[in-house]
Design a protein that fits this description.
With 82 residues, the protein is mostly beta strands. The chain contains 2 helices and 5 strands; from the N terminus they run αββββαβ. It has one domain. It has a 5-stranded antiparallel β-sheet.
């Protein structure tokens, strides 16, 4: 039997970090506060204004939300308008 690591199969592991912004279709998920078992996040429609709603879910539920989302890099993240 041949064993493959997750990296060899094509899977990769990302660590959730406070401040990350994820793009999911037409809205963005911003991790505001990250704890061991729960995540507080904010949903934005427009990253420029940063107006949105706050949500509080378990880490497992949040990971399910991210299933088809992409992580934005700092270069892609526009700073909020002041």
């Amino acid at each position: 039997m041949i064993a493959f690591s997750r990296a060899q199969v094509g899977y990769f592991q990302l660590k959730l970090r406070q401040g990350q912004i994820w793009n999911q279709g037409d809205h963005y998920l911003h991790i505001v506060h990250l704890e061991r078992l729960e995540v507080k996040y904010k949903i934005y429609k427009n990253l420029g204004t940063r107006e949105g709603t706050h949500h509080h879910v378990s880490k497992k539920e949040f990971c399910r939300l991210l299933k088809h989302a992409t992580l934005l890099t700092e270069a892609e993240d526009p700073k909020p308008e002041t």
